[in-house]
Amino acid sequence: MNNETITIVSGLPRSGTSMMMKMLEAGGLEALTDNIRTADEDNPKGYFEFERVKQIENDKAWLEDARGRVVKLISALLKHLPPSYNYKVIFMRRAMPEILASQRQMLIRRGEPADAVPDDKMAAMFEKHVAQVESWLAAQPNIQTLYVSYNEAIKDPQSHAEMVNKFLGNTLKVDAMVGVADAALYRQRRER
């Protein structure tokens, strides 16, 4: 792994980014996290977040500490990555009905309104956003992107761990990564 490269795990909320962060950490890649947001019923194995990423539009100083490490960054913030670094982005995809169901459950558990926006409108907004992000990523000369399906990674963690390992330079412990993909946490299954 090039110590100058910043590895980023991204995707829509509830798309499997925390699972991928845990897989990478288990594989030997140091995660840039602050442990402020702790594990809960929605993410029993933790969120693997770093609060400062939310301020990336105005605070990019933390990126220096991210070199040679992995950090989670929601898809809406990717556009604020400065071109002065090289990035490898692992972008998580998940079946849209599952993302919506998982978000709804999380909102219900938090006592927040879960039906403020109808699913069809939310899905359309998310799909438009993802298309824009994918187009932007493809146009960035300093960013390499690997798209990973959460649904497929749960079904076949071995081949997906191998694919991620190859993308990141074949330095990770694949067997340790495979052990993280926990099908028991795949709770919002939906037919496509």
Q: Rounded to an integer, what's the Rg over CA atoms?
A: 16 Å
Largest sheet: 4 strands, parallel
The residue ranges in which pLDDT falls below 50 over 5 or more consecutive positions are 186-192
Q: Which of globular, elongated, flat, extended, rod-shaped describes the shape?
A: globular
Tally of helical segments: 7
Description:
A four-stranded parallel sheet has the order 2-1-3-4, with helices on both faces. With 192 residues, the protein is of the alpha/beta class. The protein is globular, with a radius of gyration of 16 Å. It contains seven helices and four strands; from the N terminus they run βααββααβααα. It starts with 5 loop residues before the first strand and ends in a 14-residue tail after the last helix. The protein has a single domain, classed as Rossmann fold, CATH 3.40.50. The longest helix has 20 residues.
